[in-house]
Design a protein that fits this description.
Layout: E1 2-4, E2 11-15, H1 19-26, H2 30-37, H3 41-49, H4 58-69, E3 72-73, E4 78-79, H5 84-87, E5 90-94, H6 95-98
Antiparallel strand pairs: 1-2, 2-5, 3-4
């Protein structure tokens, strides 16, 4: 999803996927996440591999956040709740860099 920032004409806001980092931090595989959430491995793979997310299935996103929140971060051995904005952060990009992204 791409949004225009009202005050910054040369910048756009994009919704990105942070799933690969969150899985790695928790030592969790796509297969295990799929088993815990009931979301297909194919859907998880699509979310994980996208730089820019065009559509978000809210039910799947919430299930993924709950499953990731239940696991400890490996290096810290603490549980950190995963919010939707952690899974799908919004980032600013310039018009010049927009063409380089996979949409």
């Amino acid at each position: 999803m791409i949004f225009k920032h009202p005050k910054l004409k040369s910048r756009k806001l994009v919704v990105t996927s942070n799933l690969a980092k969150l899985l790695q931090e928790r030592g969790m595989s796509q297969k295990e996440l799929s088993r815990l959430t009931g979301v297909s491995e194919r859907a998880i793979s699509r979310i994980k591999s996208r730089i820019v997310v065009n559509r978000i299935d809210c039910t799947a996103a919430v299930k993924i956040c709950i499953a990731l929140s239940s696991r400890r971060i490996l290096k810290l051995w603490i549980r950190v709740p995963v919010r939707l904005d952690m899974l799908f952060p919004i980032k600013q990009i310039s018009n010049k860099n927009l063409a380089a992204l996979r949409l």
